[in-house]
């Protein structure tokens, strides 16, 4: 599991600019049974961790002598340059089902696009799923090589889910797993 080292912070409001100037990012951790705590962490370490886990996989947050299993709940970005300026971490219970959105990873090559000059339209980029935190995947793999003719389409029911994953509407329940 990817880890991120954090420290408590006392700078609040406009004073967080001093944190950002020292190449650190302000944030907050909260969740069931966890007191809401303002924190800060290395900007570079956060970017590496975010690339690895995204917003749908678990991250181990080390704060003082405690470790928390967290999801990156929200990232505020600068309106001009798009760099993160604040991050929220949600501490999860490992024994309780979570609902979260997981992005699709489109794999393969569609014969309809390659051979017939079709255009691939991706109507959905993510699906809301329900799973125990340790079962949450970073992405859901979608094989587009099944799209063999123009007008072909894939539905949520046709996506093979990793074990322990269910969508919010129950489409994947009872389906085969990878």
Give an overview in words:
There is one protein chain. It is built from three helices and ten strands; from the N terminus they run E-H-E-E-H-E-E-E-E-H-E-E-E. The chain is mainly beta. The strands form two sheets. A six-stranded mixed beta barrel has the order 1-3-2-6-5-4. A hairpin with a 6-residue loop joins strand 5 (66-77) and strand 6. The longest helix is centred in the N-terminal third of the chain and has 11 residues, at 43-53. The chain is elongated, with a radius of gyration of 20 Å. The two termini are 21 Å apart. Mean pLDDT is 86; it is low at 173-178.
Low-confidence stretches: 173-178
Helix/strand/pairing class, anyone?
mainly beta
Look at the structure and give the mean pLDDT.
86
Report strand order across the widest sheet. Answer: 1-3-2-6-5-4
Tertiary shape = elongated
Q: Helix share of residues?
A: 10-25%
* Helix-strand string: EHEEHEEEEHEEE
Quantity of strands, as a count: 10
Q: What is the gyration radius calculated from CA atoms?
A: 20 Å
What is the makeup of the main sheet? 6 strands, mixed, barrel
> How many alpha or pi helices?
3
Tell me the span between the first and last alpha carbons: 21 Å
**Percent of residues in β-strands:** 35-45%
Search tags:
10 strands, 178 residues, six-stranded mixed barrel, four-stranded mixed β-sheet, 39% strand, mainly beta, elongated
Concise account of the structure shown:
The protein has 178 residues and is mostly beta strands. Helix content is 12%, strand content 39%.
């Amino acid at each position: 599991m990817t880890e991120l080292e954090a420290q408590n912070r006392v700078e609040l409001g406009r004073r967080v600019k001093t944190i950002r100037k020292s190449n650190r990012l302000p944030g907050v951790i909260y969740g069931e049974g966890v007191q809401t705590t303002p924190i800060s962490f290395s900007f570079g370490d956060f970017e590496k961790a975010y690339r690895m886990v995204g917003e749908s996989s678990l991250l181990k947050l080390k704060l003082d002598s405690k470790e928390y299993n967290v999801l990156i709940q929200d990232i505020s970005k600068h309106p001009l340059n798009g760099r993160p300026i604040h991050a929220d971490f949600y501490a999860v219970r490992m024994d309780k089902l979570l609902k979260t959105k997981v992005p699709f990873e489109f794999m393969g090559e569609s014969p309809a696009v390659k051979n017939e000059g079709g255009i691939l339209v991706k109507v959905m980029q993510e699906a809301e799923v329900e799973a125990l935190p340790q079962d949450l995947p970073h992405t859901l793999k979608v094989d587009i090589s099944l799209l063999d003719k123009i007008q072909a389409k894939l539905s949520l029911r046709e996506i093979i889910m990793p074990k322990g994953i269910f969508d919010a509407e129950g489409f994947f329940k009872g389906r085969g797993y990878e």
